[in-house]
Write a structure and sequence with these properties.
Layout lengths: L4 H5 L2 H4 L3 E5 L10 E4 L13 E5 L8 H14 L3 E5 L10 H10 L3 E4 L5 H35 L4 H12 L3 E5 L4 E5 L5 H5 L2 H6 L7 E4 L4 E8 L2 E8 L15 H17 L6 H15 L4 H10 L8 E8 L8 H21 L3 E6 L4 E8 L5 H18 L11 E4 L9 H15 L15 H12 L4 H21 L3 H10 L4 H8 L3 H15 L6 H18 L1
Parallel strand pairs: 2-3, 3-4, 4-5
Antiparallel strand pairs: 1-5, 6-7, 6-10, 8-9, 9-10, 11-13, 11-14, 12-13
Length: about 550
C-alpha cells in the first residue's frame, strides 16, 4: 500500500523539521501518491490527487477568501495534505483562515518549525512510493500466478475459496443470488460465528458497483459471473470499519481474481452438476456417513437456505426404473438431469429440501416440513409434479409409470435424519422390482407398500437369508450358469402368473408344451413339486430374496 501522511511525517527527514499537525488530524491515513513542491496559489490545476504539497507560503493569498479558496481547490482535487514550512512567510503560526478552512475540509495541514531540504523530503517519500508500487506489482504477479494455476488445473470452487482465504487471512464465503452459502472457508474462525443467520446479514450488504466495501459490516464483496450472467457473490468477511481515506481495499484485486477463477470454473464444468447440487450432495453424504456432526449439518443447511431444526424431516430416494444400461458418460448426464429435475419439482411445490445424487443411480432428498404442512399432501404433490415434469422432459412416455419415489418415516430432529434417508433407500431398492401401481393409493412407496420385498431387502446382508437362497435355488442357478439357460426366469414367470401355466407360457412367449417341458426340468433339478403351494411359496420367497441379495 502507498505510504500515508502519518508515515511520511514519521520519516527522519521530516522529523528534523519538527512537524506539527494543526488541522485535519483525523485524516492522516490518507495515502500519499507523490510529493509536489509549489509556491503557486493556483497549483491545484496542476495536480491529479494524492499529492503531498510542500510550500513556504510566500505566494499564498493574504485575504480570508483567497486562503479558503486555496484550501478548497486543493481538497477538491484530492491532495493528501499540505505542509507549510516556517521561516519565509510565516514564523510562529498560520493564518486562522487557512487553519479553519483546512479543518472544515478535513485536509491535513502540517507546519514545519525548522527548515528542511524539500528535495530530501521528495526523495525519501518517492522512494517509499516506488517501493510500494513494486511490492504491489510483485503481489499482483503472485496472485495471478496462483489463480492461473488453479484455473489450468481445473480446481473446484472450494479450493479457489481456500486460496483466497489463505492469502487474505480472513474468512471467505461464496453465495448464490439468493444469499445462500454455496461454499466457504473459515480461515480458522468458528464456523457457527461465520454462517449464523447468513442470509439476513448478507442481504443487508449491498455496496455499489461489482466490487465494493461495506464499512458497516467490514465486508468486501464482488459479483461472480461471466458472459453477462451473474450467478453469485464472493464475500471477504472482515471487521467493520472504513477504508483509509482515498485508498482502495488492499484485497480488492485478490477477491476479483478469485471471482474470475470461479466464473471460469463454472464455464468449464457447465456440463457437470451445478454447484448447488454439489453442496447439497455433500451435506446428504455427510449425514449418511457421519462425516459431519449434527450441528455442522444444521448450520450449513441453514446457510444454504434449507432450515432443518424445528422441522419434520422426511427422507426421499428417487430411482429410475430399469432400462438399457447406458454408457458411463451418458449415465452421468442422465443422473445430473434427473437430479436437476427433482430439484425443479421441489421448487415447483414450494418445498424446502436438500437434493443431491446419492450414488450412480439414485437421487436423495431430505425434505424439511413446517408444522403447518401436511406430510401426505406435500409428498403426493411432489410425486405428481416429478412425474409430470419427467414426462414433459421426454424422460418417460406419457403412460409410463415414472421414477420410483420412496419415502422414509418422518423424524423430528437432525440427529435422526440418517435413519429416514436409509429407510427411504431400502424402500426404493425393494420397490424397483414392484409392479407399477400395485393397488396402492399413494403416488409414492413407503415401507408397508413393499411388504415382503421390503423385509427381505432389510435382511439382504444376513448370512442366513443368503444361505436360504442358495439352498432353495442354488442347483437351478448353477444349471443356468453352466448351460447358459433361463430356467430361473421360467420359474419366476410361472410364479408371478399365479401358477397359471397357460398365462405363464404366453408371458414367456413359448408354446405350452415347450414351457411345460421347462417347468419339468425345474422340478427335476430342484427336486420339488410345483403343484404344491408350499413349495411354490418357498421358491417365490427365495426369488425375492435373490433380488434383494443381488441388489
Amino acid at each position: 500500500m502507498l505510504p500515508t501522511v502519518a508515515r511520511v511525517l514519521d520519516l527522519e527527514v521530516m522529523r528534523r523539521g519538527l512537524p506539527q499537525v494543526v488541522a485535519g488530524a483525523d485524516h492522516l491515513e490518507r495515502p500519499v501518491r507523490w510529493v509536489h513542491v509549489s509556491e503557486l496559489p493556483d497549483v491545484a490545476g496542476m495536480l491529479r490527487g494524492g499529492e503531498l504539497v510542500l510550500t513556504t507560503g510566500i505566494a499564498l493569498p493574504e485575504d480570508r477568501e483567497g486562503l479558503a479558496r486555496y484550501v478548497r481547490e486543493l481538497d477538491e482535487v484530492g491532495v493528501a495534505g499540505l505542509v507549510v514550512e516556517f521561516g519565509r512567510r510565516y514564523f510562529d503560526s498560520l493564518p486562522r483562515a487557512l487553519v479553519h478552512a483546512a479543518e472544515q475540509r478535513g485536509l491535513p495541514l502540517i507546519t514545519l518549525r525548522r527548515e528542511v531540504r524539500f528535495v530530501a523530503v521528495t526523495e525519501a517519500v518517492h522512494a517509499l512510493v516506488v517501493n510500494a508500487q513494486l511490492e504491489q506489482l510483485r503481489v499482483s504477479e503472485s496472485v495471478h500466478q496462483v489463480f492461473n494455476e488453479l484455473v489450468v488445473e481445473g480446481a473446484e470452487p472450494p479450493e479457489v475459496i481456500r486460496q483466497v482465504a489463505r492469502m487474505a487471512g480472513a474468512p471467505v464465503v461464496l453465495e448464490n443470488l439468493a444469499h445462500q452459502v454455496l461454499a466457504h472457508d473459515t480461515a480458522g474462525r468458528p464456523e457457527a460465528e461465520l454462517l449464523e443467520d447468513w442470509e439476513r446479514r448478507s442481504r443487508g450488504v449491498r455496496p455499489p458497483g461489482r466490487t465494493g466495501h461495506d464499512p458497516r459490516s467490514g465486508w468486501l464483496v464482488t459479483t461472480v459471473g461471466a458472459r453477462g450472467q451473474d450467478w453469485g457473490r464472493l464475500v471477504l468477511v472482515q471487521e467493520p470499519g472504513p477504508l483509509p481515506e482515498g485508498g482502495a481495499h488492499p484485497h480488492t484485486m485478490l477477491l476479483e481474481r478469485g471471482a474470475s477463477a470461479l466464473a471460469l470454473n463454472r464455464l468449464v464444468v457447465r456440463d457437470r452438476e451445478s454447484l448447488e447440487r454439489q453442496t447439497h450432495r455433500t451435506l446428504l453424504s455427510g449425514i449418511l456417513t457421519h462425516a459431519l456432526t449434527v450441528s455442522e449439518v444444521a448450520l450449513r443447511a441453514q446457510a444454504l437456505g434449507v432450515p432443518l431444526e424445528g422441522r419434520r424431516l422426511v427422507g426421499v430416494v428417487l430411482r429410475q426404473r430399469r432400462g438399457p444400461i447406458p454408457a458411463a458418460l451418458e449415465a452421468q448426464a442422465r443422473l445430473r438431469d434427473f437430479t436437476e429435475l427433482a430439484a425443479g419439482a421441489v421448487r415447483a411445490c414450494r418445498l424446502s429440501a436438500l437434493v443431491g445424487a446419492l450414488d450412480d443411480e439414485g437421487v436423495g432428498l431430505l425434505i424439511a416440513l413446517g408444522t403447518q404442512q401436511d406430510e401426505h399432501a406435500a409428498l403426493d404433490s411432489f410425486s405428481a409434479t416429478l412425474r409430470r415434469m419427467s414426462a414433459e422432459a421426454g424422460r418417460e412416455g406419457a403412460d409410463a409409470p415414472g421414477p420410483v419415489v420412496a419415502v422414509g418415516s418422518s423424524v423430528g430432529s437432525v440427529r435422526d435424519a440418517r435413519r429416514t434417508l436409509l429407510e427411504a433407500a431400502q424402500v426404493a431398492d425393494a420397490a424397483l422390482h414392484d409392479a407399477p401401481g400395485g393397488g396402492r393409493t399413494a403416488s409414492y412407496y413407503r415401507l408397508p407398500d413393499v411388504r415382503l420385498r421390503g423385509l427381505l431387502h432389510l435382511l439382504r446382508d444376513d448370512a442366513r437369508l443368503q444361505t436360504y437362497v442358495e439352498r432353495e435355488l442354488g442347483p437351478l442357478l448353477a444349471h443356468d450358469a453352466e448351460h447358459n439357460g433361463q430356467l430361473v426366469q421360467m420359474l419366476r414367470i410361472y410364479l408371478e402368473q399365479g401358477r397359471n401355466k397357460s398365462a405363464a407360457a404366453d408371458a414367456a412367449h413359448l408354446s405350452r408344451p415347450s414351457f411345460y417341458d421347462r417347468l419339468h426340468k425345474v422340478e427335476r433339478i430342484l427336486g420339488v413339486d410345483l403343484d404344491q403351494v408350499e413349495s411354490c411359496l418357498s421358491l417365490h420367497v427365495a426369488l425375492l430374496a435373490l433380488d434383494a441379495v443381488r441388489r
